[in-house]
Design goal:
By secondary structure, the chain is of the alpha/beta class. It has 2 domains: 151 residues, 3-Layer(aba) Sandwich (Rossmann fold); 182 residues, Rossmann fold, CATH 3.40.50. The strands form 4 sheets. It has an 8-stranded mixed β-sheet with strand order 3-2-1-4-5-6-18-19. It has a 7-stranded mixed β-sheet with strand order 11-10-9-12-13-15-14, sandwiched between helices. β7 and β8 form a beta hairpin. α5 crosses α6 and α5 packs antiparallel against α10. It starts with a strand and ends with a helix. Bound molecules: nicotinamide-adenine-dinucleotide. Nicotinamide-adenine-dinucleotide binds next to α5 and α6.
Length: 375
């Protein structure tokens, strides 16, 4: 079968699903690979490198989609890409399916077999396919660098002849993959770091990275079988905001990462709370794509409210395109090769990874949760 790697067309997207060094593993399993001209440019991988690694180059998206049996992409297909997907082809990408239901319906109507990488279970066997962890870690890392650059002060403690500089205080809300990476990055830059999560089990991980785990007088949880937090009542969020006000008023940089899969981001900081923060302090809201953890966050922008800079960039992984694409290559090809048999796809619904990620096939929406939403 022929695997196609298109150039991403989402505005500003610099990542590519497969980098040249990942081609050989696909050829070894009996597949051929075609890459769209310029697909790797944003991540600094040229067409010549792809050719040298055994891929052919398609001059346009049209010719790529027409030839390929399997499309490997980073982002979900955009409006103009959907008609290019041919019947009975297979699509594997980060689909953002809960928030793109009309696209899911179109994929089914076009008889495309599609897999959503965000549904890969958080299990030991699936760890090397876990795109969300790879991208979450980059977001955590970049959130600290972005926040540090926006902060009008030093990060580390310094003792100079001109006086002592106190270290920046960083408060991280949500200690999942992104939050833990943010803790270690902020610590490496010399900040004093505190973190909070509704899942009490992360205390040990937070402390092992040298940060203080903050406790509030609120119920905690263990998270579901995938390790995810559950949605809370408005009363819970109200109490959480009340208790968090003191913490954020002491911080120079606040990083919010709180997410509930398939739901809008919980609102953790209101505009009223900003008033208690120090002038010149910074918030990086990693939940901006889903409405944000902070009232006033503008997705893909930086705003100033009540003396506080709020950064709502949603493309942190794309700002590290080389390593993001390298990690995606490993994740996506491991996912694909788990279903490969001598250059063909063998879709086994007994496999929990396959069953969890299959979205559409044979003209139907196969994912139970999504088809219930669409009913
Ligand atoms: P996520 O992006 O869904 O959420 C980020 C964090 O926000 C989570 O830690 C969540 O508990 C927290 N959160 C939600 N609501 C909150 C609130 N109101 N206040 C404070 N914090 C709140 O999660 P993620 O980072 O993708 O990962 C979640 C968990 O999945 C991990 O911590 C881990 O336990 C598990 N995981 C397991 C594997 C594996 O076993 N292979 C791999 C990756 C992750």
């Amino acid at each position: 079968m022929l695997i196609g790697v298109p150039k991403e067309i989402y505005p500003g997207e610099a990542r590519v699903a497969i980098i040249p060094s990942g081609i050989q593993a696909l050829l070894d399993k009996g597949f051929s690979v075609v890459v769209q001209e310029g697909a790797g440019d944003g991540a600094h991988f040229g067409d010549e490198e792809y050719r040298a690694c055994g891929a052919s180059i398609a001059p346009s998206a049209e010719s790529l989609y027409e030839q390929a049996d399997i499309i490997l992409k980073v982002r979900n297909p955009q409006e103009e890409e959907l008609p290019l997907l041919k019947e009975n082809s297979t699509l594997i990408c980060l689909m953002d399916a809960w928030f793109n239901l009309p696209m899911v319906e179109k994929l089914a109507a076009q008889k495309v077999r599609s897999f959503a990488l965000e549904f890969i279970p958080r299990t030991t066997r699936a760890q090397s396919m876990d795109v969300l962890s790879s991208m979450g870690a980059i977001s955590g890392y970049r959130s600290v660098l972005t926040g540090a650059m926006a902060l009008p002060q030093y990060f580390p403690m310094l003792m100079t002849a001109a006086g002592t500089i106190h270290p920046a205080k960083v408060f991280i809300i949500g200690a999942g993959v992104a939050g833990l990476m943010a803790i270690s990055t902020a610590r490496r830059l010399g900040a004093v770091v505190e973190a909070y999560d509704t899942r009490a089990e992360v205390r040990e991980q937070v402390e092992s990275l040298g940060a203080k785990f903050v406790e509030f007088d609120l119920e905690t949880e263990e998270g579901n079988s995938s390790g995810y937090a559950s949605e809370k009542s408005e009363e819970f969020y109200r109490k959480q905001r009340e208790q968090m006000t003191t913490k954020i008023s002491q911080a120079d940089l606040v990083i919010t990462t709180a997410a509930i899969p398939g739901k809008p981001s919980p609102r953790l900081i209101t505009k009223d709370m900003l008033h208690y923060m120090k002038k010149g302090s910074v918030i990086v809201d990693l939940a901006a794509e889903r409405g944000g953890n902070v009232e006033g966050t503008v997705a893909n922008d930086k705003v100033y409210l009540d003396g506080v800079t709020i950064i709502g960039y949603t493309d942190h992984p794309g700002r590290v395109p080389v390593h993001a694409s390298q990690l995606l290559t490993k994740n996506i090809s491991t996912f694909l090769l788990n279903m490969a048999d001598e250059g063909e796809l063998s879709v086994n619904m007994e496999d929990d990874i396959v069953a969890a990620t299959l979205v559409t096939e044979d003209g139907e929406v196969k994912h139970e949760g999504l088809s219930a939403q669409l009913a």
